[in-house]
Amino acid sequence: MLQRLKRLFGRKSSRPTEIPRKVPASRHIPHSAISGGAREVVARLVAAGHQAFIVGGCIRDTLLGHPSKDFDVATSATPEEVKQLFRRARIVGRRFRIVHVHVGRELVEVTTFRASHAASPHATAPPHSSEQARRSQRGMLLRDNVFGSLEEDAERRDFTINAIYYDPQRDELLDFVGGLEDIASRTLRIIGDPATRFREDPVRMLRAARFIAKLDFALDPATAAPLAQLHALLREIPPARLFDEVLKLLMTGRALATYEALSRHRLFQHLFPDTAAAIHADARWDAFVRQALINTDLRIKNDQRVTPAFLFAALLWPAVAVAEARHSGAGPQESLAPLQSAADVLTRALRHIAIPRRFSAPAREIWELQPRLERRGGRRAWQLLEHPRFRAAYDFILLREQSGEDLGGLGEWWTRFQAAGEDEREQMAAAVKGPAPPRRRRSRRRKPDSGPA
């Protein structure tokens, strides 16, 4: 399909035009690739007198030959008008209002065509209420509900490859910005002035890293140029939003490539600053993070479960180990994170990414079990096997060894212990040599005071 696109299209500017390039869709978009729910939503909107198109990542992925699960519709109807047309519809969002329309078991996201705000954050305020449009002093869009035409909507989208509209009524593709050409050349290009668009929404920098990793595209040099000056704007994004973005970045099967793109453009340091500092000081931690992400990608490829708790435990482990080493004065491989170091690292991490407690608490348990898995003599090994986080902590030991850390064969010992019979387990536990557990000091009983009350 890409070869066919290359033959059809030459390079053109990403500057939006009022007259779109129209291409018959039947040769590029199989009918079966577009969900019936999305088609039904478009048909009902058009029947009510509105314009409606399927647009965004679903069209991009279909043109690349990838299956798509999520379908978005753009329309001239306002959110309230959309809601009136569909019984199972709900308006969500404040910064960017969309309508969730349920068609059978499908969820279709419907957005109203957007228009541009003031050309510059220093220009006079546009004739819109603060409920429709709002910018920060740096030019960041705080609210983006200014509605416009189809042509204006194409201009407001982020990257050219996400601004290709599919009209299922006419079986036609509409391209205002050269998105078809960029798909053919595997180029990621932002629409409009790159610096302005990244200031409007710094998360677009993360999306750029995600797309070049996910799609194996090259980043257009003009799009990449402002990243060196603007990457620090990510510090202004709410931590809750960054948590959602991190899951999209690292849990879709291209985590390692995404990490490399984030690091190359100095974005990773604003998501995990303590870990980035540890990596900068010691390359061992880069190897550890890479191994964790390789394993994550492999599990996703094999349809195995991946938990955000384990992923965050791995991404923050370099910071935890370094904090403990600083606290104790020992090497990071010999001294593992105590409760206070783990708590300090999590506290700092939450200033940047709002990791929910349902993920941060298990991550902390994984860290706390690391030294306990070393102290496995006597009956401790059986007790640890019963711990609800044992499997995750054991996998974490294997990850540390995979990345090059020498734990004296600890991972192999636990692997054998789990597979062994009871007699062999007894022998293995008895053979473990280590420091004797500290003796508990018995507190002295105070003699009752016999003096007067």
Task: Give me a quick take on this structure.
The protein has 453 residues and is of the alpha+beta class.
Describe the protein.
- The protein is α+β, with helices and mostly antiparallel strands and 453 residues long.
- It has two domains: 1-122 and 130-192, 2-Layer Sandwich (Beta Polymerase, domain 2); 193-432, cca-adding enzyme, domain 2 (Orthogonal Bundle).
- Helices cover 48% and strands 11% of the residues.
- It has 22 helices and twelve strands.
- The strands form three sheets. Strands 1-10-9-2-3-6-5-4 form an eight-stranded mixed β-sheet. The chain has a two-stranded antiparallel sheet with strand order 7-8. The protein has a two-stranded parallel ribbon with strand order 11-12.
- A hairpin with a 5-residue loop joins strand 7 (133-135) and strand 8.
- Helix 15 (283-301) packs antiparallel against helix 16 (308-328), helix 16 crosses helix 18 (357-374) and helix 18 (357-374) packs across helix 20 (390-402).
- The longest helix is centred in the last third of the chain and has 21 residues, at 308-328.
- The protein is elongated.
- The termini are far apart.
- 38% of the residues are buried.
- Mean pLDDT is 87; it is low at 119-131, 333-337 and 436-443.
